[in-house]
Amino acid sequence: MNRTSWKAVEPQSVAVWDPVVRIGHWLLVVLFAIVYLTAEEESGSTNVLHVWGGYAIGAIVVLRVLWGFAGPQYARFSSFVCGPAASLRYLVDLVGGHARRFLGHSPAGGAMVIALLVFLAATVATGVVAYGERGKGPLAADGAAIATSAKAEEGSEGKKGKEIIAEVHGVLANITLGLIILHVLGVGVASYAHRENLVAAMVSGRKRAK
Question: Which residues pair with 134 in a beta bridge?
Answer without folding.
Answer: none
